[in-house]
Predict the 3D structure of the following.
Amino acid sequence: MSELYQSLSHSKWDCKYHVVFVPKYRRKVMFGEIRKFLGPIFHELARQKECRILEGHLMPDHVHMCIEILPKYAVSFVIGFIKGKSAIAIARQFRGKQQNFVGEHFWARG
């Protein structure tokens, strides 16, 4: 039973969250090249915050993700990081922009 839980210095934990988020105005934009591009980006961004994506599904107008987050990080912090950095990557890869412009957002607000 102890192998089910991970541990930090003073605690054992098993924190998994089912998260759903959508593009702005729920546009059906996640298909083709963006779909192939987003999977590895999400996994890499989660690794940067010491998290692990256990399962994920990209639908045309939303994302389902089962993610394991350490208790020392707030869920909103990790998801905000993933949404923000992936939006920057999408803008650079598919919109040809090298910098963020105020007012342009890919993901809807929470």
Remarks:
- The chain has a mean pLDDT of 84.
- The beta strands are 6-7, 12-13, 16-21, 52-58, 63-68.
- The chain has two helices and five strands.
- The first helix runs from residue 33 to 48.
